[in-house]
Amino acid sequence: MVLADLGKRITSAVSDLARSNVVDEKVFDGMLKEICSALIEADVNVKLVSNLRKSIKHTVNFKELNPNVNKKRLIQKAVFDELVKLVDPHSEPFKPKKGRSNVIMFVGLQGSGKTTTCTKLARHYQARGFKACLVCADTFRAGAFDQLKQNATKAKIPYYGSYTETDPVKVSREGVEKFKKERFDIIIVDTSGRHQQEKELFAEMVQIQQAVTPDQTIMVLDASIGQAAEAQSKAFKESADFGAIIITKTDGHAAGGGAISAVAATRTPIVFIGTGEHMLDLERFAPQAFVSKLLGMGDMQGLVEHVQSLKLDQKDTMKHIQEGIFTVRDLRDQLGNIMKMGPLSKMAGMIPGLSQMMGDVGDEEGSMKLKRMIYIMDSMTEKELDSDGKCFTDSPTRMTRIAHGSGTSVREVEDVLTQHRMMAGMAKKMGKNMANMQKQGVGM
Ligand code: GDP
């Protein structure tokens, strides 16, 4: 990921300065030069970088520096503050209120990640106790409604759309009216995108906007457009006046720094960034937290919010373990909990210092393996899930059926069952210990 590389380069430039015995103007200039070239390589506008350089130099003011001042701290703070300024639009984003219908409309070019992000955002609010739903107003692209339906069903989010109606204004009006009557807190309207900024696209956006009167219009931008983000957001803004932006695919190979800083220059708040294809790959964007994470300083507030929003399901498993039982379903729930937390590296980025410690260890392979294990268990019947797993060892055809159903191999099914047996064995021991402790009156 390019943004992570940018963070590493800036961090190492600052640490080099912190480690050097003498901090003189030459060392300071060297650090500034390295930071600036890292930013330019991450596609940040040259003019913005040059301003950042000037500002840091001005704040530190090396020539007139008081000899008693802690130079290293001062420089580090100046770098941090200027990076925050670079991505800060200086404008507060809209905050939805509970107890009323907040209509959010999405706009953007086709392929930018609009439909995916609509569902991610609905799920985000749903996890925070809002009643959220989706309306598909994309009647232009065949299959758009199916895609939204699929995503929404997976995330258990109510949706509205039509296979036959070709007027997007009508569909969006009907959908929003229906959900308003049903007292949904968050109604997200996905509109159609085109390959280019065509006249009809803009006219359609305006008509939908007039029909659903959104509380907030969000533009979705693909990070790979880099510095062109500024021009594109301006073009959209002239027609559909949006109040916030979500930048997607910041996990990709594109130098996301370009899009983020270009958007900040338009003084429109970036509210979230998309960091992957998974439903949970949506991170709230706040300039300070973003820079803090970029520089490996963590985002503890983000971490706490993230864990709280997950509603990890532990109850049944804990009860089972106390009884010395561990069903296949318990294994599925536990793996699900790990998956809900998101990739390990993402969690590590929120914990100060941990991402540096983990270095370049990739977690793609690990999370793919976990996903396949879950697919396997999702292909089991309720009875099989609640079993102790023995029904599989007695019946190889059962294993073949599951492998077919989940698109995996018998070998992988066996691996899941081995994992389950191991954990069931541990649960049995723990259950016995707990029972003994209870007998002896030891409090738990
Ligand atoms: P739309 O045409 O704007 O509605 O775009 P889609 O929602 O269909 O997304 C286009 C593609 O981008 C899909 O393959 C998504 O899975 C992918 N995508 C969306 N957001 C992200 C993201 O943040 N990261 C990555 N890697 N892919 C994304």
3D architecture notes:
It is a single chain. A hairpin with a 7-residue loop joins strand 7 and strand 8. The protein is globular and about 80 Å long. The two termini are 45 Å apart. Strands 3-2-4-1-5-6-7-8 form an 8-stranded mixed β-sheet, with helices on both faces. The protein folds into 3 domains: 2-87, Four Helix Bundle (Hemerythrin (Met), subunit A); 102-280, P-loop containing nucleotide triphosphate hydrolases (Rossmann fold, 3-Layer(aba) Sandwich), CATH 3.40.50.300; 312-353 and 365-434, Signal recognition particle, SRP54 subunit, M-domain (434 Repressor (Amino-terminal Domain), Orthogonal Bundle), CATH 1.10.260.30. It has 21 helices and 8 strands. The protein is of the alpha/beta class and 444 residues long. The structure holds guanosine-5'-diphosphate (GDP). Guanosine-5'-diphosphate (GDP) binds next to helix 5.
Bound molecules: guanosine-5'-diphosphate
Largest sheet: 8 strands, mixed
Integer count of domains:
3
- Give the CA-CA distance, first to last residue: 45 Å
The CATH top-level class label of the largest domain: Alpha Beta
What's the number of helices?
A: 21
Q: Which residues sit in consecutive blocks of at least 5 with pLDDT less than 50?
A: 357-361
- CATH homologous superfamily grouping of the largest domain: P-loop containing nucleotide triphosphate hydrolases
How large is the share of residues in beta strands?
Answer: 5-15%
The overall pLDDT, averaged over residues, is 81
CATH fold name of the largest domain: Rossmann fold
What's the architecture of the largest domain, going by CATH?
3-Layer(aba) Sandwich
What share of the residues lie within helices? 55-70%
Number of E-state strands:
8
Question: Order of helices and strands, N to C?
Answer: HHHHEHEHEHEHEHEHEEHHHHHHHHHHH
**Global morphology:** globular
The class by helix and strand makeup works out as: alpha/beta
Q: Radius of gyration from the CA trace?
A: 26 Å
Strand ordering within the main sheet:
3-2-4-1-5-6-7-8
Protein name: Signal recognition particle 54 kDa protein
GO molecular function: 7S RNA binding; endoplasmic reticulum signal peptide binding; GTP binding; GTPase activity
Domain SRP54-type proteins GTP-binding: 269-282
Subcellular location: Cytoplasm; Endoplasmic reticulum
